[in-house]
Amino acid sequence: MGLTSEKLDLTRQSDVDLVRLCLGGDKLAFAELVRRHGSGVRTHLRRMGAQGADADDMAQEAFISAYEHLAEFRFDGPFAGWIKRIASRRYLKKVRANQKYVLTDDMTPYAPETTGSDDFRAHNLDAALNRLKPAERLCLTLNFSGDLSHQDIADELKIPLGTVKSHIKRALDQLKVILSPNSDPNPNPVMETGT
User: Fold this and answer.
1) What class is the 103-195 domain?
2) Domain boundaries, the chain
3) CATH number for the domain whose boundaries are 1-102
């Protein structure tokens, strides 16, 4: 006789145990996985560039897809990484299908409105990511949060591998500067000129 969520405290179960329970037909175990990872998936999608309700909708779609394909989970990595990869691919599909999501190599960083001189100090990752170019932010997020390799990103975005590596390197270099304690609160970088 197998265990069911009625006999277990699901909050104390590992993700692997919850997936096994789900595969055995326990829907409450999947609800616990959604509760546990829903916020992280929505944050991941927002960091990629999805906005508000779109990120919520895509996260929900990703969990539905994960539930329908749970038998394909290989137990060779964390569930969080697997669900983020599903969400990443759903986002990229929307990027390719909808002009609302545009992946450009625009040289102008995103600069949201600020309300005061110190309000824009990027001391958190989300604010810092918003200062990157869209293509850099997307590649970096797919690599670190989405757990995709450089080659996987190149294949998904249909851009050269070297371009992906360049985007990620530039993004990391910029984040290092943005997140440093001495960073300039001015969201518009000043280009240095040689003498």
Assistant:
1) mainly alpha
2) 1-102, 103-195
3) 1.10.1740.10
Cβ contacts of residue 130 below 8 Å, gap of 6+?
110, 112, 137
CB 170 within 8 A of CB 134: no
Backbone angles phi, psi at 53, to 5 degrees: -65, -30
3-state SS of 132-160 is CCHHHHHHHHHHHCCCCCHHHHHHHHCCC
Please tell me the pTM assigned to this model: 0.72
Per-residue pLDDT of 122-160, as tens digits, reads 348 888 998 999 999 999 999 988 888 999 999 988 899
pLDDT in tens, 53-110: 999 999 999 999 999 999 999 998 899 999 999 999 999 888 878 755 555 544 444 4
Tokens encoding 33? 């996985």
